[in-house]
Amino acid sequence: EPTVRTELMEQIPPIAIFLQESRPKFPAAFFEYLMPIVVRYLTDVNNQVRKAGQEALLILLEQDLVAQSDIENKVCPILLDLSAPDSDDEYKVEAVNIICKMASMLSRTTVEHMLLPRFCELCSDGKLFQVRKICAANFGDICNAVGQEATERLLIPKFFDLCSDSVWGMRKACAECFMAVSYTTSPEVRRSKLSPLFISLISDTCRWVRQAAFQSLGPFISTFANPSSAGLYIREDGTLSIRPSAQDVNSNSCQPSNSITVMSSTANAA
Known about the structure:
By secondary structure, the chain is mainly alpha-helical. It is built from 15 helices and three strands. Strands 1-2-3 form a three-stranded antiparallel sheet. One of its GO terms (molecular function) is protein phosphatase regulator activity.
């Protein structure tokens, strides 16, 4: 029964945490029994079971309960199969979503060598605009996961393509994550490549794209500032914030922190 498998998936994370805390008694139980179930349910025929499996996997990764070898040898190959060009549409959309969400939880080497090539392919998926939209919405997170060199060499060309996509929702998603992409690049790339690209979005024929671009204008400009003097920084949750100066901290030592969030740098895929 699918409901039984779904319920089982919901119990996997707490069981895994218990096994982790009791590792001397159960040294290999998670890797031998639970992890294979999670991987298998990522390809279950039932949509709800797959969704529960995906949520369980992300929780396990977030809690750092999955070994690097299992990620590379078991999880990534399944996601690459599900996101292949000839894969079923529904499976492909789900796989892309997982790849984007788990990128920030994996090592840079794993993301760059195992997932980044497929992500670049999916950015150009001509069959499903939903796939391209997920890529566009999470583009900043992928850039942050792989760093400046891979971003400028492999991702920026794909970002240009998405910013000129025929579907306005794609261009809007790019405008919303523009600051996060810019933050990962060098000052020269920001000036010579991203600035003209941003002008094209702020002059877009679609008012929804223009509106999103105008909302990202301030955060994008902030990426040109020197963080040490401007006090701007990116929080772990992907938001642009202002760090109070030492003088402000001393004068308000009894007051709550006045660090404020300016704008979210990423957008969830619709």
